[in-house]
Specification:
The structure is a homodimer of 337-residue chains. With 337 residues, chain A is of the alpha/beta class. In chain A, 43% of the residues lie in helices and 16% in strands. Chain A is built from 14 helices and twelve strands. Chain A has helices at 6-13, 17-25, 32-45, 51-58, 81-92, 108-114, 131-138, 162-175, 188-192, 196-212, 225-236, 253-262, 279-282, 296-311, and strands spanning 63-67, 96-100, 120-124, 143-146, 157-160, 180-184, 215-219, 244-247, 272-277, 290-293, 319-322, 326-327. Chain A has a six-stranded parallel β-sheet, covered by helices on one side. In chain A, strands 7-6-8-9-10-12 form a six-stranded mixed β-sheet, with helices on both faces. In chain A, α8 runs parallel beside α10. The longest helix of chain A is centred in the middle third of the chain and has 17 residues, at 196-212. Chain A is elongated, with a radius of gyration of 26 Å. In chain A, 50% of the residues are buried. At the A-B interface, α4, α5, β2, α6 and α12 of A face α4, α5, β2, α6 and α12 of B. β2 (96-100) of chain A pairs antiparallel with β2 of chain B, so a sheet runs across the interface. The first copy, chain A, binds a DNA duplex (16 and 16 nucleotides) through residues 5-7, 15-19, 21-22, 25, 27-31, 34, 49-59, 116.
DNA sequence: GTGAAAGCGCTAACAA
DNA sequence: TTGTTAGCGCTTTCAC
């Protein structure tokens, strides 16, 4: 026997179907006598409203989707902490979270929405010119972004301020006397498709170097320790070799420190390291890394929260660029003579 | 104007609603002439089937839920790999994935199901006597587990064989001459509620020690580097202090190695470390850790795949206890004299 | 305050 | 081979 429906409740309470619906929603006054009977019947039957049917009737699912292309990709390991943050926000407001990975074709985004499964979505890995954004905007579909593109009018988003972040790192190292830097970024694939933060951080690096009139080289790098190890080796072979590295790639920090050690060099005496990554990762290496703390979780939470507020009809504009402070741990120091 | 419905398509193609439905599902023969017209109309209108409505009619959502209690708690990154694996399986079969965190009360599990939002679920952090399992089983609701309880009849699951895993670690270290071991586990809270792998690994540790007639001590530990640092300090203060540690807690490996270094000791000369964690984590520390590779992703994938096969009506029984090999890296060596 | 009935967009008998 | 129609379980207008 299947689960009881509203009709069952109505029959048992001896009232009309609509009365049951209204006692539940409170959208119209119900005499307390009837209300009692209905609630009793609900209790007796162990009735649970069927969210799906409700969604069909109201066109609201109370579920949002997180669009996170690299979540299943082989190439790039995702920053899963984002998901954790998003969940925090959805839980708080009793929303469901549907995880969605990369549409083969960007059109598929639309497809997802049309299905009626979700009320809105949070976009990750936003590209500078993101076709998904075009579609969504054109369809006036509710969405927010973790990240941002070139043109973001009327879109609420949260992102790390990579301009600020990278400049801060470069300035910090330059002030310590370093004149040859390296920037270890993520997979070049992400860069090639124009992912916002990849392009911005690279540009910011070039910019900052020019401003301080120092040298620097960028290395794109797959998200595994081995790749980091190799990248570091080739960097150390350069002449002049960098005396400091800025690393955005959380998965390779182990490979980098290892390559440095294997070379007989030490951190920070010979080489300084500054990360743009989470404190957890920073604390995993020896020595713990000086970083700009990448607030993955907080960003996930904010991105989702913005969406939920939109869905609740609130009208507002938030385009937040976070500027977390530099936390000096033990991987950075003055340039060796 | 809202999205076109099947009725719109039918009208435009000059056929009945059901004809459209059937051309789409292929559940009854359609003359190719009519099929053409229908497909044309669909194309013209840019029609997309409404998954929600379909789900209500068929009682199948093609979505599963992952029940992962601690997903929003502090402990995160390494274990989130499970999610990534689950997604791989669901993507493959074109299922959706709904993420669900801890029900306040275990009854809530049922609530979720009754809503009709998902076809089945994958349970994580299974306790030895798990009330969720009771309910689900009693309701004959489709589910699989990543983990397992005391009694698992007729339930398909995948789990790491902690018995084997811990024994392997202990034997390996004992063979290297170590006589005083430490086992660094996860939060005692998980242990206290009877989470299967927590209890099993602890028991296995005691067991293995007894078998080899050596000493050992267990430390439960929160999932942050600082906690690992402190736990290690107190361990090193013991007399006799352990000469080798087995670590299940992926978040603290950095703290452990740091505490050891700060003490002026070195790995593996003075202290050996063996992890039960993913290669990624193993490669993050200096030196890279000898581990039994915890196949988070593969387990996620298998757990979900089992469920999907069940949902597709396949009848089978799989209760897989994985025994990944020990990978010797550079954190383990003979006991110092 | 309460009830009856018309949808939400689709599937699946049942007819023809 | 195709059309008609009755649901799926709920919300919501409209009448009483």
């Amino acid at each position: 026997m299947s689960a009881p429906t509203m009709a069952d409740v109505a029959k048992r309470a001896g009232v009309a179907l609509s009365t049951v619906s209204h006692t539940l929603s409170g959208k119209r006054p119900i005499s307390s006598e009837v209300k009692q009977r209905v609630l009793q019947a609900i209790e007796d039957l162990g009735y649970q409203p069927h969210a799906l049917a409700r969604a069909l009737a109201t066109k609201q699912t109370r579920t949002i989707a997180l669009l996170y292309p690299s979540l299943t990709s082989e190439m790039t390991e995702p920053h899963l902490e984002f998901v954790s943050g998003v969940l925090r926000a959805t839980n708080l407001k009793k929303y469901g979270l549907l995880l969605w990975t990369t549409p083969e074709e960007d059109q598929e985004v639309l497809y997802l929405l049309r299905q009626g499964l979700v009320d809105g979505l949070v976009l990750m890995e936003v590209r500078l010119e993101d076709p998904r954004v075009q579609m969504l905007r054109q369809q006036r579909y509710p969405f927010t972004m973790i990240g941002h593109g070139v043109e973001n009018e009327d879109i609420n988003f949260v992102d790390l301020d990579f301009e600020y972040t990278v400049h801060t790192c470069v300035d910090y190292l330059a002030d310590l006397g370093h004149r040859h830097l390296a920037f270890i970024s993520l997979s070049s694939q992400l860069f090639d498709i124009g992912t916002g933060y990849m392009v911005r951080s690279e540009q910011a690096f070039r910019h900052a170097l020019a401003q301080r009139e120092i040298e620097g080289v960028t290395r794109f790098c797959e998200t595994n320790a081995q790749a980091g190890y190799e990248a570091t080796q080739t960097l150390l072979n350069l002449d002049p070799a960098p005396t400091a590295m800025i690393v955005l790639n959380a998965w390779v920090s182990g490979g980098i420190t290892r390559a440095i050690h294997d070379r007989g060099l030490s951190i920070p005496a010979d080489i300084s390291l500054v990360g743009i990554l989470s404190p957890q990762v920073a604390e995993m290496t020896v020595p713990p890394l000086t970083t700009i703390d990448f607030p993955y979780k907080a960003m996930g939470e904010m991105g989702a929260e913005l969406l939920l507020r939109q869905l609740e009809g609130e009208v507002f504009s938030v385009q937040e660029l976070l500027k977390p402070p530099l936390t000096v741990r033990h991987s950075s120091g003055p340039c060796p003579p």
